[in-house]
Each structure stands twice: as structure tokens, then as C-alpha cells.
Design a protein that fits this description.
heterodimer; A: 103 residues; mainly alpha; 4 helices; 2% strand; flat; B: 3 domains; 3 strands; 72% helix; 3% strand
Chain lengths: 103, 564
């Protein structure tokens, strides 16, 4: 193992440059839409910024809904294993009912 | 060219793998499938290797463009996976994986339903050993649940075939459709279980991530694609499939975002990709079927590549949870690059393989007026980039530095991943190579200005959403957890219900017994009370009262005498 090895993204400046390049790409792609003639199937595809907005809003919604789902669906890692221990002492099975483990 | 069904070659290779050891076994496992592929190349359409069994005609080698393409695909997938697992010293895995690949080939070249059923069951029986090969408590349980679901699928198929054979004179594999009634629905359901339709997908996300690093690569290639093949063969143009497919493309991406086990994330994204294929089959036009089949081809390669890269991470670090990984790019740059190629392919970046096939299904959807389905698929495309394209490489190789300084995986793993990555690029850059093999002759070109631009816009702004959410600290962190899915029904609800019903029945039984015992006791008390010193039956009777009784009796007779 090398000690104190400096890797590509350890330097915050490199990360900043990567992000700047990425933002520039996004901007260029957005502007290109107005310079290139697009032949589309449906009228709403012609709306300015339809694809960029759909991608951005779709993904933000995806993540926010998924975060909300965590509240409903997330359980401790050994959730399914607790049943085995419950088997040995039948009464404790009731203590692990799904509704009660919810956070 | 020898006209033998390809599964025979694989079964011979499996038998040899059982007795051989070391490099000889590796050689056999590579050379025989390679020879089989060379032998299969360009087999003319027709039906070969037919065997009469009782009143059935079993067709083991039915060749047309559709089965031939899947045949090539499964050979390539098997070869890549075999190379990937060359370092494994486990006779069970190496034998069973060849049997499994052979069964998949048997299924796609089956010319009739009985033969299909035979290989359908063989697929289940052989693949479950790949899950069990992990030899852990979790994999044992997951394997059992996997086997039960697949045996159920086989039984439904068998019952469907039996009902079908009562009205249809021929069992030849062809269009069936839901109009067949019960037989059609049963077979549809049987294929649906193996194709991981919503509510039947629990086995996939449950079992695949529990297999060994190499086993999962085999598993991800065959079972579900055989189901896609069967659906494309028997239910093309069934409208219901379009909506099922749209649901499949959509719901797993939410799970994938919050899942911690990175191979389980890939299992969810496998269902998401199957959704695109199922939509294509449901639309059923030449372009849509071509798209579905081409996407199946690409998916096996790029999903295999992603599973291989995550398998490599698991192999060298022993960890697969996103919460425990990160920063691996520092010491595993080759694996990182190969994983990113797979991620770009599944996200359908132009010049990568997903782009040239997913777009066919999308185009078919909008051309046939399924606007809403198209919008759902577009959302799913953005979502798949989000979880498989960014999340997988980001949390494994970048993100926070986990401090793990693992070496690159063994050379054979790198070679297998490189072959898959090269295929992704070849198909992406020169799609005609794949298009030429598709079942229908369709002129389609994915690379036009509009399509490339809109796809890039979609992907870059999806990535922008990821960057923004991360900078705002809104992105859900990777947490060690289990997320409830349909398998909760049979892993938690049913066992708990059975346990409670059992306990309830036990208590009820106790109460009934206790009550009955009390009743019997009190009855005995009543009876004995009559025999006790003060009881009726134990009393002393006076002689006079007996005489009075006799007088009464005689008086009664007298009355009777007068009356009659």
C-alpha cells in the first residue's frame, strides 16, 4: 500500500473542473436544440426544453418518491432473520409485527 | 456442420467438467461451447432431431431466425461467463453452470411445447444450484423460495399444455394468444413468473444477489431471456403485455434508488430492462419485436458486464453494500472503466449498445399510438440512467473513500469483462451487425440528429438532477437495510400468519379440551352422586311402599280391563 497517495479526485480542484465541464455540456446540449431542426412524432416533443426538463424533473421526483418509500418499506438488515428466533419462542412473534418496526 | 441440438454439446461439456480438473476443465468449458457456436452459425431454418415419444412428436432442434439469434446469444453469454469463472475451483458450480446454459439452449431450440416444458424444468433445477453454491444460510433460503416459484411456473405450463392438447391437434410451438382461454392464460402466467412480471418478481431480486459472484452472471443471462423468447414466440401482439411491460419498466427503479446491495440494484434494473422487451412483444409489430429481441441481446451483454464488475468487487473486497464501498477507482481503475462502459450501455448512451435497441421499442410505441406508455418508458430510461448508470459506478468506485485498497480482480475476470465491453461498443457503433440477425427485415437507423440530441439531453439532465440532489444533500444515503417487496408476503406475512393461526388453533384446542374435560367431570359427578349414601339409587326402600306400588299397578291393570 502506498502511503499518502494522491488520486485523481482527492484534489477538489479536479472535481470542480469535472463539474464545470459537465455543466458546459448541459448548456451546449440545451442550446443545440434551438439550432438543429428536429423532426418529431408529437407536438409536445417540440416544446422547448421538453427532454431536458423531463429528464431533470423525472429524476428529482424519482428520488424524492423513493426517499418517501423508505419510510414505508425500510426495515433493519436482519428483518427476515428475526422470524427464526421468533420460532423458538412463539409469543415474541407478535412483538415484531411490521407496523411496529416502522420508523 | 453437424445438425445436433446445441444443448447436447453443453451437456457433454458438463459431464467432462465433472471428471476433469484444473486447466483441462477450463479448456473443455471454453472449447466445446466455442465449437458449438461455430457449428451453429448459419444453420438453415428447419426442424431437426425429432423424436417420437408415445403419441408426441418431440422436436429438439427447431431453427428459425428468432431461435437462431437467441442461440448465438446464449453461446456468447455462456462463453463470457465461463471465462469469468475460470478461477473458480468448485466442481458443483462449473458443472451446473454448463448444464444450465445447455438447458437454456434446449428451450430456445424446442420445436414443441412438451420439449419446451422439459427444458423449462431443467432450467429451474440446474440454476437453483448456482444460488445454493454460495453455501450460506441466506442463499439456502433464497434458493428454496426460487425453486418453489420456478416449479410452480413449470406446473402451470404443464397444466396449460394438457388443456391445450385437448383442443389442438398439434403441440408445435407457435402463436397461442390469450384467446385460447384457460390454456392460454395458464401458459401466459407460467411465462410471466419466469419473466418476473410484477408481483411474481420476488424470486429474482431475492435469489440473484444471494448467488456467488460468478453464479449471478450465469443467472442474469438465461432464465428471464428464455421467458422473453417464449413470450415472443407465443404471445406477440398481446396488448396486455404492453401495460405489464410499462409497469415492469417503472416500479423497480424506485426500489433500485433505495437499495443498498449493489447486486440487488442490478437485479431490479434487470426487471426494468425486461419491461422494455415485454412492451416490444406486446406491441407485436415487426419493428417492436425486432426491438425486443435486440434489446434482449444487448441486455444479456451489458447486464452481464455490470454483474461481472460488481461480482469482481465482491470477489476482491468481500463486500457488496453501497454503504461499505466507495473510492475503489484508486486501485481498481480497469474494473472501474469496464463498469462505466456497462453503465453507459444500459443507460443507452449513443455509441453504446443499449441506444440502438431501446430506441426501436420506444419508436414502435409512439408510432402505434401508445403515447402514455412512451412517456412511462421515457421516464424509465431516465430512471435507469439514474440508478444503474450513475448509482452503481458512483457508490462502488467513487463517492466517499471507504479506505478499501483492493487489487484488480484475476486476469480471467478482466478478460471476460473486456470481451463484454467490446461487444457493447461494437453493437453500439456498428448496429447493422446485430440488425442483420434480427427476425424481421426492417430498415431502421438509430443514429439520426434528433434522436441522438434528445437522448443526450435526457441523460445529461438526469445526471444534472443527480449532481444537484447530491450537492443539496437531498440524495438518500446508502443505508444498511432491507426494503420490503412482494417477497415479504411469503417471507413474513405467510409465516407469521401461519404461526399465529397455529398458535390460535393450539389455544382453541386447549380451551375445547378443557371445556370437554370439565363437562365429562361434572357428568361423572352427577352420576356418582346418585350412588352415594344420600343418592336416589342408594336409598333404602320400605316394604310397605313396595306393596303400595304393586296395588297401584294392579289397579291400573283393572282400569285397562274395564276400558277394553
Amino acid at each position: 500500500m502506498r502511503k499518502k497517495a494522491e488520486y485523481l479526485f482527492d484534489n477538489p480542484r479536479n472535481v470542480r473542473w469535472l463539474l464545470r465541464g459537465f455543466y458546459a455540456c448541459c448548456l451546449v446540449l440545451f442550446i443545440l436544440e434551438f439550432l438543429v431542426h428536429r423532426h418529431t412524432e408529437r407536438a409536445w416533443e417540440q416544446l422547448p426544453g421538453f427532454y431536458p426538463l423531463y429528464g431533470f424533473v423525472g429524476c428529482v421526483l424519482l428520488v424524492l418518491i423513493a426517499k418517501w418509500m423508505r419510510g414505508l418499506l425500510m426495515r433493519p438488515e436482519n428483518y427476515y432473520e428475526t422470524l427464526d428466533s421468533a420460532d423458538k419462542q412463539p409469543d415474541s412473534g407478535a412483538d415484531h409485527s411490521p407496523a411496529e418496526v416502522e420508523h | 456442420m453437424i445438425l445436433i441440438p446445441p444443448f447436447i454439446a453443453f451437456f457433454i461439456a458438463a459431464a467432462l467438467a465433472l471428471v476433469l480438473r484444473g486447466w483441462a476443465r477450463g479448456l473443455v468449458a471454453i472449447v466445446i461451447p466455442a465449437l458449438s457456436l461455430a457449428n451453429l452459425w448459419g444453420t438453415p431454418a428447419g426442424e431437426y432431431a425429432t423424436v417420437g415419444l408415445m403419441q408426441f412428436e418431440l422436436v429438439f432442434f427447431s431453427v428459425d431466425r428468432l431461435s437462431l439469434l437467441f442461440g448465438y446469444l446464449f453461446h456468447v453469454a455462456a462463453l463470457i461467463a465461463v471465462i469469468y469463472s475460470l478461477h473458480v475451483r468448485d466442481t458443483l458450480q462449473q458443472t451446473v453452470s454448463l448444464l444450465y446454459a445447455g438447458s437454456a439452449l434446449g428451450a430456445v431450440f424446442a420445436g414443441d411445447l412438451m420439449t419446451l416444458f422439459l427444458f423449462w424444468e431443467l432450467l429451474a433445477l440446474t440454476s437453483v444450484f448456482l444460488v445454493w453454491a454460495r453455501r450460506s444460510q441466506a442463499s439456502y433460503g433464497a434458493g428454496l423460495r426460487y425453486l418453489v416459484m420456478h416449479i410452480l411456473s413449470g406446473l402451470l405450463l404443464l397444466v396449460g399444455i394438457v388443456i391445450y392438447s385437448r383442443t389442438e391437434p398439434s403441440l408445435a410451438l407457435g402463436q397461442i394468444g390469450l384467446e385460447q382461454g384457460a390454456a392460454g392464460w395458464l401458459m401466459f402466467l407460467a411465462f410471466g413468473i419466469k419473466c418476473a412480471f410484477p408481483f411474481f418478481h420476488g424470486w429474482l431480486t431475492d435469489a440473484y444477489p444471494e448467488s456467488t459472484p460468478t453464479g449471478t452472471v450465469f443467472l442474469s443471462a438465461f432464465t428471464t431471456k428464455v421467458a422473453v423468447y417464449a413470450l415472443a414466440r407465443t404471445f406477440p401482439g398481446t396488448e396486455l403485455l404492453i401495460y405489464i411491460g410499462a409497469a415492469m419498466a417503472c416500479f423497480p427503479i424506485f426500489y433500485a434508488v433505495i437499495e443498498n446491495d449493489l447486486r440487488r440494484v442490478l437485479a431490479y434494473s434487470l426487471i426494468n430492462q425486461l419491461g422494455f422487451m415485454v412492451v416490444g412483444i406486446g406491441i407485436g409489430t415487426a419493428l417492436a419485436i425486432n426491438g425486443a429481441v435486440a434489446h434482449a441481446f444487448n441486455d444479456v451483454i451489458f447486464k452481464g458486464l455490470l454483474f461481472m464488475s460488481m461480482g469482481a468487487v465482491l470477489h476482491v473486497t468481500g463486500k457488496i453494500n453501497g454503504s461499505e464501498l466507495g473510492g475503489l477507482y484508486k486501485t481498481m481503475p480497469k474494473t472501474t472503466v469496464l463498469c462505466i462502459v456497462g453503465a453507459a450501455s444500459i443507460s443507452a448512451f449513443p455509441l453504446f449498445s443499449g441506444f440502438v435497441s431501446k430506441s426501436m421499442v420506444m419508436t414502435a410505441a409512439i408510432k402505434n399510438g401508445y403515447d402514455w406508455v412512451w412517456l412511462v418508458l421515457l421516464f424509465a430510461s431516465a430512471g435507469v440512467f439514474h440508478h444503474a448508470g450513475i448509482k452503481i459506478p458512483y457508490f462502488a468506485f467513487f463517492a466517499h473513500d471507504s479506505g478499501i485498497r483492493a487489487k484488480e480482480p484475476p486476469l480471467n475476470m478482466l478478460i471476460a469483462m473486456s470481451i463484454a465491453a467490446a461487444l457493447c461498443l461494437v453493437v453500439g457503433i456498428y448496429p447493422q451487425a446485430l440488425y442483420r440477425l434480427l427476425p424481421h427485415e426492417v430498415a431502421y437507423s438509430p443514429y439520426d440528429m434528433t434522436h441522438v440530441l434528445t437522448q443526450l439531453q435526457l441523460l445529461f439532465f438526469s445526471a444534472l438532477a443527480f449532481v444537484w440532489l447530491n450537492l443539496q444533500r437531498l440524495y438518500p444515503p446508502e443505508l444498511p437495510s432491507v426494503n420490503l417487496d412482494v417477497d415479504w408476503v411469503y417471507r413474513r406475512l405467510l409465516p407469521v400468519a401461519v404461526q399465529r393461526i397455529g398458535n390460535g388453533a393450539f389455544r382453541l384446542d386447549q380451551q375445547v379440551r378443557a371445556a370437554a374435560r370439565a363437562r365429562v367431570g361434572s357428568l361423572l359427578d352427577t352420576i356418582t352422586s346418585h350412588h352415594k349414601p344420600e343418592g336416589i339409587l342408594a336409598r333404602n326402600w320400605l316394604t310397605g311402599s313396595m306393596v303400595a306400588g304393586v296395588v297401584l299397578l294392579l289397579g291400573f291393570y283393572l282400569l285397562l280391563g274395564f276400558a277394553l
